[in-house]
Amino acid sequence: MTGHRLAYVLALAVPAALLGGALIAQYGFDLPPCEMCWWQRYPHIAALVFAALAWTTRRDALVALAGLAILVSGALGAFHAGVEYGWWEGLTACTTTAAGGGDALEAIMNAPIVRCDVAPWTLGGISLAGFNFLISTVAGLAILWLIRGRKRDLR
Q: 63-98: per-residue pLDDT in tens?
């Protein structure tokens, strides 16, 4: 596989895998996302759209945009991890989401409180936000490095 093609694959696979992992953590392991976790998901969604469009149009600029979006999520992950580790204060008061249906007040009162400054899960001292920072930053930089100034066909 050429480096150019690898950039296209990474641009699609990395945000898909990270979003998939976030959804598995949320629904499979009952780790609801905080507000800052949501912020990290949005650039990955944008990266998926850019990468899918790049595959259909063969435009390297879209792969570069996907790489940049992945880097944005990594930067948000770094900020969130810093809040979790107490290195700095977060920008918002984390909120919770209420379940739909039934009595709205009861749903709000029984909804779990998800704090941005507490890591609900770690591995080797690295939180999910920390892993997003590490993976997204390396992947985003790799995509931009692999796609730099090359005009090759994917065939």
A: 999 999 999 999 999 999 999 998 888 876 664 444
Please tell me which residue, 133 or 86, carries the higher pLDDT value. 133
Instruction: With beta carbons less than 8 A apart as the criterion, state whether 69 and 46 touch.
Output: yes
Question: Where do the domains of the chain lie, and which CATH numbers do they carry?
Answer: 3-147 (1.20.1550)
Nearest residue to 78 via CA among 15, 127, 143, 125:
127
Q: Are strands 122-123 and 126-127 parallel, antiparallel or unpaired?
A: antiparallel
Backbone angles phi, psi at 82, to 5 degrees: -60, -35
Amino acid, res. 64: A
Give ∠ CA 43-68-13 in degrees, rounded to 5.
70
